[in-house]
Amino acid sequence: MLVEIPRTAAQPSIPQITADEASAAARAVIKLFEKWKLTDAVAREILGGLPARTYARWKTGDHGRIDRDLATRLSLILGVHKGLRILFTEPERGYAWVSKPNDNFGGKTPVEIMSQGDIFSLARIRAYLDAERGGW
User: Fold this and answer.
1) What is the number of structural domains in the chain?
2) What are the helix and strand counts (H, E) for the chain?
3) Which of 47, 61, 99, 127 has its CA 20 to 30 A from that of 106?
């Protein structure tokens, strides 16, 4: 006998990332940027041009208010990390991938694309990894 599985609601019950979730994402991204061996300047550009003083506070754990744009960027960055962890069984290869030139990006590195500052560049890298792992 077939039993129907309850459907998931199309809209989440909590439509936005909470402050605690955004802060946790910020902590994870700071650690990820260390693994990717990014300079503070490049990290700040990936985060949409975050001011140097703000980023320095982030590194001490003081994240302050994280707006929707920044929370979306954090989510995309963590999605890139997730895609790399799925594609590479050795974490170090995934961390190194972001700094290697890629023909699919016109010979640029994924970090160069992501650090262009616009949110669409982050989404481009995320979508590429999702497609590579068959996530479409």
Assistant:
1) 1
2) 7, 0
3) 47
Q: Which domain holds residue 120?
A: 19-132
Instruction: Please indicate, yes or no, if residue 14 is contained in any of the structural domains.
Output: no
The torsion region of residue 95 among left (phi > 0), alpha (psi -120 to 50) and beta comes to alpha
> Is 113 inside any structural domain?
yes
Lookup result for tokens 């744009």? 69
Residues 6 or more apart whose Cβ sits within 8 Å of residue 16: 68, 71
DSSP 7: P
Token readout for 104 is 């699919």
Q: How many Å apart are CA 31 and CA 26, to the nearest integer?
A: 9
